[in-house]
Amino acid sequence: MTKILFSILLLPLTAVATPKPPTAENRSAILTQARMVPDLMNGHVVGYRVLQIQPGSAWDKMGIKDNDVILRADGEAIDNAATAFEKLGRIGHATSGRSTLVLRRNGEEITKIYEGQSQVKR
Question: Please, which residues have CB within 8 angstroms of residue 69's CB and are 6 or more apart in sequence?
Answer without folding.
Answer: 39, 46, 47, 48, 49, 50, 103, 104, 105
